[in-house]
C-alpha cells in the first residue's frame, strides 16, 4: 500500500509495516536524538520481508545509532571551523557552501550533518542571515562556485529557489551554482517544470549533484525527474556514500554507477563514510573501500568510475583515497598495475 504522506514517527513506522512493534521503543529513543522522515516513494521501495533491505537500512532508525564511538564527532567534516558567517562554509578559496535550509525530505541514518539537520536542527536561514551570506559571497571575488547544500535545498519552494538564483545572478564572479539533493530520487514529483526553471539563471551554469546509494533508488520516476533537469540544461553529477550492508558489493556499486550514467548523471564522488555520531555500523575500513573501488575498474566503463574520497575529519577538506596503480621503482621508473592485476614496468622520461 502506498503511503500518502511522509513517515516521521516510530508509531508510523510500525503502522506502515517498516518496523517490528517490539522495536518501537528503540526507534522512539533514537528519534529523540535524530529525526526520522521517509517519503511515500522511499517507503514504497522497501521490501518488508527482507530484514537487511538496503533501502530500509538507510532510513529506518536502528538502536545502534545510540552507540557513539570515541572517534566520532558532532561536526565530522569541520563545517563550523570554516564558517565566517551563518549559513556559509568557506573551506576552499574558489567555492563556498551556502546552507540555506537544514531540513530534508528523508533523514539518512548515516548523515554526516545529523547533529544539524531535522526539525530540531539549525532550521532555515532567516532573511537577515541570508542577506549576510549573499553579501559575503558578493564581497569575495575569488568565489567562483556556490554549492547549495544543507539539508536539502530542493525542499525549498520554486519561488524561494528562484529568488535565491536572482540574487546570485547579480554576482558576476559566481559562475557555477551547484545544488546537492536527494529530491529527484526520494520525491521525484517535486521536480516539476517550475522547480526546474527556478534553478536556472542567465550567466550561471547550474549543476545538481544527486545523492543515491543503491540502484533500487533509481526508479523510472527518479530517472524521469533527472531527465527533466538534464533536458533543461542542468548538468548532473552523482554522490554516493559507501555503506556497509547497503552498497559494499562490487555488483551493487557497478549497477548503481551504470544507472547514473544511463540517466545522464556523471558519477562524481563515492564518499568514505564520515565519523558522524552513532554510525559505526555503516563504516567499513579504507582498505575494504579501496578493494571495492578497484573492483569497479575492469568491471564497468570509465564513464562509471566515481572518485573515492574521504573528508578528512576536522575540516581539512577532501582527499582522494583510491589505491594507487603506480609505484615508483627507482631511477624514475615505475611499476604500473593493470585492471587484472598484471604489473608492467614504465621507463624513465627521456629513455624512449
Ligand atoms: S539528505 Fe543529506 S543532509 Fe539530509 S539527512 Fe540525508 S545525508 Fe543528511
What this model shows, in words?
With 352 residues, the chain is of the alpha/beta class. It has 3 domains: 44 residues, no CATH class; 241 residues, TIM Barrel, CATH 3.20.20; 28 residues, no CATH class. Helices cover 29% and strands 18% of the residues. It has 11 helices and 12 strands. The strands form 2 sheets. It has a 9-stranded mixed β-sheet. Strands 10-11-12 form a 3-stranded antiparallel β-sheet, with no helix packed on it. The chain is globular and about 70 Å long. The site of iron/sulfur cluster has 11 residues, from loops.
Structural class category: alpha/beta
Question: How many domains make up the 3D coordinates?
Answer: 3
Q: What is the global morphology?
A: globular
Radius of gyration: 21 Å
CATH architecture of the largest domain: Alpha-Beta Barrel
Number of strands: 12
Describe this structure in a few short sentences:
The protein has 3 domains: about 10-55, no CATH class; about 80-320, Aldolase class I (TIM Barrel, Alpha-Beta Barrel), CATH 3.20.20.70; about 325-350, no CATH class. The protein contains 11 helices and 12 strands.
List the keywords.
single chain; isomerase activity; 3-stranded antiparallel sheet; 4Fe-4S; 3 domains; Lysine 2,3-aminomutase; binds iron/sulfur cluster; iron; 11 helices; TIM Barrel; 18% strand; 9-stranded mixed sheet; 352 residues; alpha/beta
